[in-house]
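Weekly structure sync, notes
Attendees: PL (lead), two postdocs, one rotation student
Agenda item 3: pending single-chain targets
PL asked that the sequence for the first pending target be pasted directly into the notes so everyone works from the same version. It is reproduced below exactly as submitted, 74 residues in total.
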Amino acid sequence: MPEILALLQNIAPLLAPTAVRQLSQVLFGMLVISGRLTMLGLSRWTAKGGSYRTIQRLYHSCLPWKALHWSFFR
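Predicted structure, written out during the meeting:
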């Protein structure tokens, strides 16, 4: 599992440190969750720092998705 989260290092220069931290919490929750994938379920499966409000903030933030996809898959 840490190997997958290490892939975030490629896109870290494109994001603010807060967004990287929030994204890592959400990705970790998505990898370990079982059953339905909801924001409440994600907040229950994430570690400290992955509250429901944190997940809401990430989903409502404006991220440079084109640059993130390009950097991640390059």
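Discussion points:
- The radius of gyration is 12 Å.
- The chain has a mean pLDDT of 82.
Action: rotation student to compare against the earlier draft before next sync.
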